[in-house]
Amino acid sequence: MENKILVTGAAGFLGSHLTAKLLEQGQEVIGLDNLSSGRKSNLEPYLKNPRFTFVERDVCEREVLALPYMDKVKAIFHLASPASPKFYQAQPLETIAVNTLGTYHMLELARRNGAKLLYTSTSEAYGDPEIHPQEEEYRGNVNTWGPRACYDESKRLGEVYCYEYAHRYGVRVKVARIFNTYSAGLRNDDGRVISNFVTQALRGEPITVYGDGSQTRSFCYVDDNIRGLLLMMERDEANGQIINIGNTKEYSILRVAELVKQLTGSDSRITFHPLPCDDPKVRRPVIQKAKRLLGWEPQIDLWEGLQRTIAAYRQQMEEQEGGYYSATNM
Fold it and tell me: Which positions fall inside the NAD-dependent epimerase/dehydratase domain (predicted)?
């Protein structure tokens, strides 16, 4: 196959799952990642696949556009960016750059090649929302002067770049606003809710809930998310559209902690800590547009997704720790 698909951020959580699915479909894939938060080990099973090329480069480098095989790229999944507060707050300027300059470079590549481009934005574009649930037309309530702004606002500006290239140059751009996504592929030091809770519960450590746990989130299993992204890239109806990709079932953070305790059989205590600055109080998508344009909606509920995630984390930890578990976690 002469035409290639480019995945930026290929060594990250979503990027590696997407790469695996594309290769499974028989596609030719170029995976681009500077490994600032992604792990090359996520791509280990595919490095010897003749249809996969891994490039350790930064999408912010304009020289990336001159790489010889970029001329054959006809579809671009632009996923590159730290996504966990732990990582983007440690690399704020790099996060701003990848979502603005990096997005500009990928849009230039799409324009030059006549390629389609899918940009992964975020539910953080809605900030701490004053309208609930959130539909794509809601403009958000985002603080530009705080520790989350480097991610929230750079993703929003990335959307503006996409708008300009779609309307000025006719680039076939699709923007996915992704809500909380999870599975065993999340790094267990990622700092996000599911990875934190499952790791702490399996180790018998206190489960750390920030605030009183009444804040809500909607959790989408990674298989559902990837299916949505693939449909967005495939469907012409998604061109020039912003589409929410997420699960509409809403849970309080405290309920998730209790569910993880139940499913792991852990005796971990739930402890409460100060709420981080600008942490959204509620988060739930309206997905009518995804249903109408893509025929997409999630299929895996939190109970099933957590069971899959816990089983995989348990196996990973047994391999890493030589099979040792305290009696409370068996």
Answer: 5-246
Round to whole Å and give the CA distance between 181 and 119: 16
**Can you tell me which residue has the tokens 């909607």?**
218
Q: Tokens for 8?
A: 């930026």
* pLDDT per position as a tens digit, 160-187: 999 999 999 999 999 999 999 999 766 6
As a whole number, mean pLDDT of residues 119-128 equals: 97
- Token pair listed for 31: 């995976």
- Given 88, 104, 119, 151, which residue is catalytic? 151
**pLDDT-derived band at 276, boundaries 50, 70, 90:** confident
Closest CA to 274 of 195, 208, 229, 230: 208
DSSP state of 44: G
**Integer Rg of the chain from CA:** 19
Domain 4-179+221-245 grouped into CATH 3.40.50.720: yes
Give the C-alpha separation, 112 to 250, whole Å: 42
151 is catalytic: yes
Positions of CATH 3.40.50.720 in the chain:
4-179+221-245
Classify domain 193-216+248-283+300-329 at the CATH class level: alpha beta
Residue range(s) in the chain whose domain bears CATH number 3.90.25.10: 193-216+248-283+300-329
